[in-house]
Automatic annotation (TrEMBL):
This is Class I SAM-dependent methyltransferase. One of its GO terms (biological process) is methylation. Residues 1-13 have a biased composition (Pro residues). It comes from Actinomadura decatromicini. Belongs to the methyltransferase superfamily. Residues 15-32 have a biased composition (Basic and acidic residues). InterPro entries: Diverse_substrate_MTase, Methyltransf_11, SAM-dependent_MTases_sf.
Length: 280
């Protein structure tokens, strides 16, 4: 059984990019996705932006533009590539230029970039083909940076959600209790697959993997608002989803109506080597 986080965070199944139904299910409620999903810490955005040799970025799997807008606010220009036309449409309305395609099939038409970034999305990309395409469109010294928010809710929330899933949707292939385990145990398969793809491209220098820890406070309504944006719940029948939310909300009520979420943003970065020839 793959370990799939029911709260926004990357699944640790390294082959998840093959599940296109889940990958392209988030646009069913793009407005909720944009409103409820966590953003990224300033320090992460600034460090990635500073590593790029220039201001022009390509945002892979940009969704509604959550990360793109952060980079734009930091003075960068961003072109998004997003396979879900509904997500892309909202991103455009919110100020990000987007082209609808998977990165594997996207035609750069000769364009090149100083950075290829991907927030909360590179696990939907074939790790080898995606890295090869990034190498093809990056200028020498350009940076590929994939990053994810890894959540660690209080145990009471995890236990309540796990019990709700067991009672309401026992057929969902999700191990909710995995959120209790350290990220060093739950994310290596995914991060390793990404790093292997970067190495296979044959055009990048050393891989830099680094974490950034931060916290965010949630009210009951805020956390339940984001729950339907997780991939395992995006296609769940409304009545079943409502029952999961109600049972989980009761646990938040017992904590006083809110809680503090611990996050670790995990980043994988590598620079395009001058003269390197991508493979594939």
């Amino acid at each position: 059984m793959p370990t799939i986080s029911p709260e926004p965070g990357p699944p640790s199944d390294p082959q998840l990019h093959r599940d296109r139904r889940m990958a392209e299910s988030f646009g069913a409620d793009a407005e909720r996705y944009d409103r409820a999903r966590p953003s990224y810490p300033d320090a992460v955005i600034e460090r990635i932006a500073a590593a790029c040799p220039g201001p022009e970025l390509l945002d892979v799997g940009c969704g509604t533009g959550i990360a793109a807008r952060r980079f734009q606010a930091a003075g960068r220009t961003v072109l998004g590539v997003e396979p879900d036309a509904r997500m892309a449409a909202l991103a455009r309305r919110l100020g990000t230029e987007v082209e609808v395609a998977t990165i594997e099939d996207w035609d750069p038409a000769g364009r090149t970039f100083d950075g290829v970034v991907s927030g909360q999305a590179w696990h939907w990309v074939d790790p080898v083909a995606g890295a090869a395409k990034a190498a093809r469109v990056l200028r020498p010294g350009g940076v590929l940076a994939a990053f994810w928010n890894a959540p660690r809710p209080p145990d009471e929330i995890v236990d309540a959600l796990a019990e709700a899933v067991r009672r309401v949707v026992p057929d969902i292939p999700v191990d909710v209790t995995a959120m209790k385990r350290p990220i060093e145990e739950t994310y290596p398969a995914l991060i390793g697959k990404v790093a292997d793809g970067v190495r296979a491209a044959g055009a990048f220098g050393p891989i830099d993997e680094w974490p950034h820890e931060w916290t965010r406070s949630y009210t009951r309504d805020e956390w339940l608002d984001q729950l339907p944006t997780a991939g395992v719940f995006t296609r769940l029948a409304p009545d079943r989803l409502a029952e999961v939310a109600e049972l989980t909300g009761q646990a938040i009520d017992r904590l006083g109506g809110g809680f503090t979420m611990s996050y670790t943003t995990l980043v994988v970065m590598a620079s395009r080597v001058e003269g390197g020839a991508e493979r594939g």
